[in-house]
Specification:
The chain is an alpha+beta fold. It has 2 domains: 6-151, Beta Barrel (OB fold (Dihydrolipoamide Acetyltransferase, E2P)); 168-316 and 377-505, BirA Bifunctional Protein, domain 2 (2-Layer Sandwich). The protein contains 17 helices and 22 strands. The chain has helices spanning 13-29, 46-51, 53-56, 94-97, 99-107, 155-160, 162-168, 170-191, 233-241, 279-298, 321-329, 339-348, 359-370, 424-439, 450-458, 470-478, 495-505, and strands at 6-7, 11-12, 60-71, 76-82, 87-93, 113-122, 128-139, 196-197, 203-204, 216-219, 224-228, 246-254, 266-275, 302-305, 308-311, 317-320, 379-382, 394-395, 398-402, 404-409, 412-419, 463-469. The strands form 6 sheets. An 8-stranded mixed sheet has the order 8-12-13-22-21-20-17-16, with helices on both faces. It has a 5-stranded mixed beta barrel with strand order 3-4-5-7-6. The longest helix has 22 residues, at 170-191. The two termini are 23 Å apart. InterPro entries: Aa-tRNA-synt_II, aa-tRNA-synth_II, aa-tRNA-synth_II/BPL/LPL, Lys-tRNA-ligase_II, Lys-tRNA-ligase_II_bac/euk, Lys-tRNA-ligase_II_N, Lys-tRNA-synth_II_C, NA-bd_OB-fold.
């Protein structure tokens, strides 16, 4: 924690760091190599000993972990040791360890990693404790951890030094252990329904499957530019064409866009595709998946997010985009007959209208800016305009709209799904329209993908497709305010640049 300026009642950090390095020489002079042990065999974890004390009382155990506190003087001392699952108290006594080993213990610092063997008992205060019979130094810590009272509070430092954040803040560790359980539950849900998990390329020659700005890299051997994938869609639909029928992938995608509490340039996306169903089938999967995961990891279909109770129990409310606008704003776009009339509505509501926008673009703009925040309880918003849905099938009764939905919780989009467009001629025409938008300066518009058109010409059955932002799902399941709180190593500006910017602002 060399970034901390002042710790432990104002002592100078550099002096403390120097003392720790001096202890290396002191330990070596006593015949202790601070990094010399390659392997240490444990018999138990701290949590199982504390949770099942009656069976462990009086037994000898061997555990390992990081020293988080030391206290006591003279011939007896206490320490707390922390492993992945929790903490437990240790009792060190001179007449048990012998003079040399007790002196070695006194040299150890908070943050050092040790292995201990000892007998389980309860202290006079009733705390489960291990009476240490033997211990070994497994790794010397040369940095000074934040003290337990002040902790690691600076968000920027927490994200940059997640390894310290995990040590100091128990809730952070719990979040990421729960993240693993959530991802496991998602796989259980889909695997039990006959879906096949697959892997598709991360490097693409065409950035497709979403309206997003890609990261560009260069392949030297082929001498071509390539893109980090912005979505999983087009490769997965090729597999539907190939007859796999029910496929999913959960992996990182990359979008060269802004960052805020809901967006990180790389994030985990789940996409699944099922042949012979439609977007109504995808609604069933979405609401049941969320409910299954919540009950599996939290024990209830109800969650509390930022103080608000959210009931994930199916069925969720279903509402068309046009009806949502009518309900929340009393604007009926069914009665709007021209692009010009729609644009005028947007301007009256102080919304920015970009050149070339059509009625469908305006409907989506009005909904995004003025309606989303009203959708607190889980809601499916259906039937999106074709202008913003280049990969979704048109509705038979209204070709200006598509069989598409997005799911919203707490005013945030958590899922996006279509009845997939499987008409190759219509798809090519929409790609051509997207190309016109790219030529007009929209670098988030889709590129032409001739091979995907060829796949559709081979023939894709009626298909439902679904995408879920896994990090956002995890935010709800863990009551995390920011997406950075559920990504172990979120994207950060290089520290030197951050410090320079900070100094300029000061």
């Amino acid at each position: 924690m060399a970034n901390t300026n002042d710790v432990n009642n104002g002592e100078n950090l550099n002096e403390l760091l120097k003392i720790r390095r001096n202890k290396l020489d002191e330990l070596r002079s006593l015949g202790i190599e601070p990094y010399g042990i390659d392997k240490f065999d444990r018999t138990n974890m701290t949590s199982e000993i504390k949770n099942d004390y009656d069976n462990f009382e009086g037994k000898t155990v061997t555990i390992a972990g990081r020293i988080m506190s030391k206290r006591g003087h003279g011939k007896a001392s206490f320490a707390d040791i922390q492993d992945r699952d929790g903490r437990i108290q240790l009792y060190f006594k001179l007449d048990v360890l012998g003079e040399k080993n007790y002196e070695i213990f006194k040299i150890l610092d908070i943050g050092d990693i040790i292995g201990v063997t000892g007998e389980v008992f309860k202290s006079k205060t009733g705390e489960v404790t291990i009476r240490v019979q033997d211990f070994k130094l497994l790794s010397k810590s040369l940095q000074v951890l934040p003290d337990k009272w002040h902790g690691l509070k600076d968000p920027d430092l927490r994200y940059r030094q997640r390894y310290v954040d995990l040590i100091i803040n128990p809730g952070v560790k719990e979040t990421f252990i729960k993240r693993t359980a959530i991802i496991k539950a998602i796989r259980e849900f889909l695997d039990s329904r006959g879906f096949i998990e697959v892997e598709t390329p991360i490097l693409h020659t065409i950035a497709g499957g979403a309206a997003a700005r890609p990261f560009i890299t260069h392949h030297n051997a082929l001498d071509i530019d390539m893109y980090l994938r912005i979505a999983l869609e087009l490769h997965l639909k090729r597999l539907i064409v190939g007859g796999l029928e029910k496929v999913y992938e959960m992996g990182r995608v990359f979008r060269n866009e802004g960052m805020d509490i809901r967006h990180n340039p790389e994030f985990t996306l789940l996409e699944l595709y099922e042949a012979y169903t439609d977007y109504h089938g995808m609604m069933d999967i979405t609401e049941n998946l969320f409910a299954y995961v919540a009950e599996k990891v939290n024990g209830s279909k109800k969650i509390v997010y930022q103080g608000t109770e959210i009931d994930l129990t199916p069925p969720w409310r279903r509402l068309t985009m046009i009806d949502a606008i009518k309900e929340f704003l009393d604007i009926d776009f069914n009665k709007v007959s021209s692009d010009e009339e729609a644009i005028e509505i947007a301007k009256k509501n102080h919304l920015e209208v970009k050149e070339g926008m059509k009625k469908g673009d305006i409907i989506a703009l009005v909904f995004d800016e003025l309606c989303e925040s009203h959708l607190i309880q889980p809601t499916f918003i259906m039937d999106y305009p074709v202008e913003i849905s280049p990969l979704a099938k048109r509705k038979h009764d209204n070709p200006a709209l598509t069989s598409r939905f997005e799911a919203f919780i707490y005013g945030r989009e958590v899922a996006n799904a279509f009845s997939e467009l499987n008409d190759p001629i219509d798809q090519k025409e929409r790609f051509i329209e997207q190309l016109k938008q790219r030529e007009a300066g929209n670098d988030e518009a889709h590129m032409m993908d001739e091979d995907f058109i060829n796949a559709l010409e081979v023939g894709m059955p009626p298909t439902g497709g679904l995408g879920i932002g896994v990090d956002r799902l995890i935010m709800f399941m863990t009551d995390a305010y920011s997406i950075r709180d559920v990504i172990l190593f979120p994207t950060m500006k290089p520290k030197a640049e951050q410090d320079e910017l900070k100094n300029e602002n000061e």
